[in-house]
Structure formats: C-alpha cells, structure tokens
Design goal:
Layout lengths: L9 H30 L2 H12 E6 L6 E2 L5 E13 L1 H23 L4 H12 L2 H16 L5 H8 L6 E7 L1 H8 L6 E10 L7 H4 L1 E2 L5 E3 H5 L1 H5 L3 E7 L5 E9 L7 E2 L4 H18 L3 E8 L5 E7 L18 H4 L9 H11 L7 E3 L4 E4 L2 E4 L6 E3 H7 L2 H10 L2 H10 L26 H8 L8 H12 L3 E2 L14 E2 L3 H12 L19 E11 L2 E15 L6 E8 L7 H4 L1 H14 L8 H14 L1
Parallel strand pairs: 2-10
Antiparallel strand pairs: 1-8, 2-3, 3-4, 3-5, 6-7, 8-9, 11-12, 11-21, 13-16, 14-15, 17-18, 19-20, 20-21
Helix pairs in contact: 3-4, 3-5, 11-21, 13-15, 13-16, 13-19, 14-19, 15-17
Length: about 600
C-alpha cells in the first residue's frame, strides 16, 4: 500500500505567517521604544529613577540641654528611632501567604514516605508565612507586647495606611526589628529626652510628650528656646527604606539652645531625699521643700512629693504632675507671724523692745475666740515668736492701720504671682484691706484668712534675710543681679531676724531646726485646714521656714508636710528636714559658720574691751 504525502493546509499556513509577522512587529515596536527612550528621552528615565530612589526626609532638631547652675545636665536628648508600618499592606500580604501555607500544608499531610515528608516539612518551614509569623513574634518580644497583642492592634488599624509599632526606641532595638525585613516596616530618626535626676527634679524640669514638645515644668515654659527648628534633606534610600546617603540639604536644622537653671543638683538631690524620708516616715499626704539664695533670689532646690519619674512613661500618673510648692495655696499659719511683727515695726506702732500683754491667754471677738495654749502674760516680741502666741500676734496686728498692714504684705509679694519662671504659679489670696473686719485683721496677724504658696512665703522671707531688699524670685541662673525692691528698712529686717533666733532655741518651738556651728532664725507653723465651712481638728499643714547663718543670712529653706499622721506640729514634722538640708547646703556652698566656740570667745572679748 503506497504512502501519501501530507499536504499543508493553505489556511493553516496563512495563520502561521500572520502570527509570525505580528510577533515580529511587536518586537520591533518594543525595540524602537527602547532605542527612543535610551537615546532621545534619557532625562525622563533618569528623573523617574531618581523619584524611586530619593526621598525628602525631616532632619529632627536636637533639643537644647537643661543645665543646673554649675553646667551639669538635668535634661539631655538621646538618639531614638520610631518604627511604623502600613497595616493594610502588611495584613493583606500575611493573608495571601497564609493561604499559600495552608494549601501547602494540606498537600504535605497527604505526602507518603519519610523522605518526601521531610522535604515537605522543610518546604513549609521556609515559606514566607512562617518567616513572617516568626518575625511578628520577635517584634512582640522586643517591644514587650503581650502575646497576640500586635496582630490585634494591626487588625484594629487595618483600614489605616499608618501605624506606630514603637515610638522613641533605642536605635539598637529598632535595628533588631528592621533586620527581620518585615514588609513595609519603616524607621524614622529622632531624639528622646533623658532626665538624669529622674523623680528628684521631676516637678522642676517637667517633661516632653512623645513628639518632643514640652508639656510640664521648664520643658514647657522654655519650649521655644529648647526646641530648635527641624531641617529637610534629600536622601537616597534602598529597597528596605534605609538611608544610604544624603544628597543635598534643603533646609538647615537649627539645634535648640541650652537653658541654665539656678538649681544646684547636689542640693536638689539632698532636699528631695530628706523630704521623701520624712513624708514616708510620717505617712503624710504630701510634702514640699524650697531652697532660695537670699542675695540673688535664685531657687537652688525645689521638690515635692508625690513626685514622678519623667523617664518612665508607662507609670506616669497625671495627678502627681502638680508642682505643689508653686501652684498650691494654703493658709500659712504661724509662719506669717515674723512678717506681722515686721509690718508693725515698719508702721512704727511698736518698737523692737516692746512687750505685748497676752493675758488672760485669749481674745474674744463675739462668737470667735483666739487662744494660746496657756496664759503667757506680758511677753517680748522674740518670746511671742518663740512661743508662737496667736493672742500676741493678733494684738500686734490690731495695733496697725489695716491699709498699712495690707500694703506691707503686698510689698513682700503676697497676693501676686511670683513670676519665678514656672507654669501656673499661684497668686495666693490676699483680700483688700477695705474688706477686713476686726476678726479678719486679727487673723491675718497669725496667718489665717489669707493664702499663699510656699514659693511666695519663702520669697517674702528672703527680704528679711537681705536687709529689707526683695530680689525677684527666679528659677534661671542670674549672671547679673537685677534691681532689688526695698520693702522694709534694714533695721526692721535685722531686728526680726534676731527675734526669730529665739524660735530655734532649746525652749522654742523650732529647737529641732538647730545646726551645729551656725546660728539659725526661723519659724514653725501648723495651719488647720478649712473644710466644709469649718476648720478641721485632724487635718493640717505643718511647716518650718528658716534662715542661716543668722548673722550673715545667705539661704532660706522652707519645708511643708501636708497632713502627717505621726507628728502634729511644724517643729516636729518639718524642722528636722530643714536642719538636715540647710546644714548640707551650707557645707556644699562653703558658707563659713557663725556659731563656733572660737567665734563666741572673740565676740565676748570684743564686748569686754568696749566696756
């Protein structure tokens, strides 16, 4: 049987030639396009390439340091990284890879034979989904998320194109996460504030928020100086969004300026430590302490309890942010009596050697009675302060014209904002003398019926210690002394300082404030709180304010202990803190003693020679 030759169909041959021609035409068009782009439109390709590789990034400004008076850091900025991602892309990618993994898993379950099964397990372990899950667990571990919390957060943010994985992370932690190569996880550089003294100076320094903006304390008040200005730079990034190199600076970064405070961090630490020990020991509600230089008006230390650690953002409690020494006002109680005596001396209604009759130990104002613990009889002004006689202070106040009394209190700073440089400084409360009745005037004599902050009262005491000159209070270091305000005569100030020494003697209410080698002037105070239209018998503010050395005043230290449960007076609760802090501050500042035996002997010899 003969074989027939196959003959190609004319229709099939035509189709083949048409397809070949079409294919060659497409190739020709692509080649022509490539030549055109390479030869005639090269700049467009270069521009697009640059757009894919370059990016304009923000160069964060370095926030200025906060320094103490000696140049030691109290707030510094350290480099940090902030990690973010696109949750939608990340979760969609995870879903695709999970489906691929589940399909491969089902196939592996049907695999027969040990070798085939091992090969399938190796394939599963190397799949993108497994690597992604391991990476996400590692992120949770590094960022200290609870197990499963990260995925839950991402699911809640699925509709968003941006999510913070972690903010202000140490660079080494951020690099550890970036090394996992998770899709669309990016990092931006910045700075985080670090506070070396932690809670010791929390109320003074304050803190910044997560964006680096000052929100409390000096960080808030001086934010415009500290912040600086961010810059902008064009950089080259790789496929993992990491900066390879900088190309050009579009806007120069301007770093923030440093701020130097009047605080001495050594005294600040001691003041906080002693205050904390006493507040804890007495189981008190709160406490405050303030140290001021009488000659410059500078605040050398200021602390409050409860405090807060601005370095530990996870345990911050907003109710502890309040700088009580600056913002809180309360009736000063007996710590106002030295100012009452000074006002009366300035008004010339009494002389330093006058005696005040306090018999029979109480004064009646209709339904209102002012009492002393006992009948002190006729006493000197020094004894009035040493015994803290309410009757004596009332009688002294009533000798004055209300207007003169009010003007003196206003001159020393009561009733107005101290303007020392803190946010939310209290002006206290001092009503006009035109509103005073006889009871009001008398109560103003022993520290009731008006309110002051601890800063206001401490500032007023600096005038006593500075020969009647009141320097502006400030939290910033003073390079050039400003003009002082004369609020009383040097004679009045010196007389009251001598009288206040009687308080810090063996038979005075402030005997626990004594310091070896130094003469101390001071005043105790215990002010009962006005609650529900009545004075409480169980809730009170105890305080002590003292000046040293008494013969050459340099420092004022004021201590408040709020509602102590164990000691019920300023002499027992607050004076011991004063003694410890003042003695250490005098030593650190190298202020010479004025009460050594040799000095006493020289003083006695001088007096005998004059005789």
């Amino acid at each position: 049987m003969s074989k027939r030759k196959a003959v190609a169909s004319p229709v099939f041959e035509g189709r083949r030639r048409f397809l070949m021609l079409a294919l060659l035409s497409v190739i020709g068009v692509l080649m022509l396009r490539a030549v055109w782009l390479e030869v005639f439109d090269q700049s467009m390709l270069q521009e697009r390439a640059e757009q894919r590789q370059t990016k304009v990034v923000t160069v964060p400004a370095y926030r200025g340091m906060i320094l103490d008076r000696n140049g030691d850091p109290m707030a510094v900025s350290t480099p940090v990284e902030t990690l973010s991602c696109n949750p939608k892309i990340l979760l969609d990618t995870r879903t695709v890879w999970r489906d691929e993994y589940n399909a491969a898993l089902r196939t592996a379950e049907k695999t027969q034979g040990d070798e085939a099964r091992l090969a399938a397990e190796r394939t599963l372990a190397a799949m993108p989904f497994v690597k992604l899950e391991d990476a996400l667990r590692k992120v949770e571990e590094v960022l200290e998320y609870p197990p499963g919390q990260l995925l839950q957060n991402l699911e809640e943010a699925r509709d968003k194109n941006f999510y913070y994985l972690g903010r202000q992370l140490p660079p080494e932690l951020a690099q550890e996460i970036l090394a996992l190569n998770i899709k669309k996880v990016e990092s931006t550089s910045g700075y985080r504030r670090f506070y070396p003294l932690a809670e010791t100076s929390g109320h003074v320094i304050g803190m910044t928020d997560s964006d680096g903006k000052g929100i409390e304390g000096i960080e808030k008040v001086s934010d415009g100086i500290l912040a600086g200005q961010d810059g902008r730079m064009r950089v080259v990034k790789d496929g993992k969004n990491r900066i390879i190199e900088g190309i050009e600076s579009l806007k120069d970064m301007v770093p923030g300026q440093a701020v130097k405070l009047s605080i001495d961090r050594r005294i600040q630490y001691i003041a906080y430590k002693q205050l904390k020990e006493q507040v804890v020991r007495l189981e008190a509600k709160a406490g405050s302490i303030l140290v001021m230089d009488t000659q410059t008006g500078e605040i050398l230390a200021m602390a409050n309890l409860p405090s807060f650690n601005p370095n530990n953002r996870k345990q911050l409690d907003a109710q502890n942010y309040r700088n009580r020494a600056v913002t809180d006002k309360s009736e000063p109680g007996s710590t106002l009596k030295p100012l009452t005596v000074a006002a009366a001396l300035e008004s010339r209604v009494i002389s330093p050697d006058v005696e005040i009759d306090t018999s029979p130990g109480h004064i009646n104002f209709g339904k209102y009675t002012v009492r002393d613990p006992s009948n002190y009889g006729s006493i000197s002004l020094a004894t009035l302060l040493a015994k803290s006689s309410n009757v004596g202070a009332s009688r002294v106040a009533l000798l004055m014209n209300p207007r003169d009394h009010w003007m003196f209190l206003s001159r020393v700073g009561l009733g107005r904002v101290p303007a020392a440089g803190f946010p939310s400084e209290s002006a206290g409360q001092l009503s006009s003398y035109t509103e005073w009745g006889k009871v009001d005037h008398a109560s103003h004599g022993y520290g009731y019926g008006l309110a002051t902050s601890l800063l206001q009262l401490t500032h007023a005491y600096t005038a006593l210690a500075n020969n009647g000159q009141l320097m502006p209070a400030t939290i910033y270091k003073v390079d050039k002394l400003p003009l002082a305000q004369t609020v009383m005569s040097p004679t009045t100030a010196q007389s009251v300082i001598r009288m206040m020494e009687a308080v810090v003697q063996a038979d005075g209410t402030g005997k626990r404030a004594m310091i070896d080698g130094y003469r101390v002037s001071g005043k105790t105070g215990t002010a009962y709180k006005f609650i529900n239209n009545a004075y409480s018998n169980t809730r009170y503010m105890t305080s002590f304010i003292g000046i040293a050395p008494a013969t050459r005043p340099r420092l004022v230290v004021a201590v408040q202990i709020d509602e102590p449960k164990k000691d019920d007076s300023g002499g027992r609760a607050a004076a011991p803190v004063f003694s410890k802090v003042m003695s250490e501050a005098l030593r650190l500042l190298d202020i010479p003693p004025d009460d050594l035996p040799a000095l006493k002997q020289a003083d006695t010899t001088k007096k005998e020679g004059n005789t």
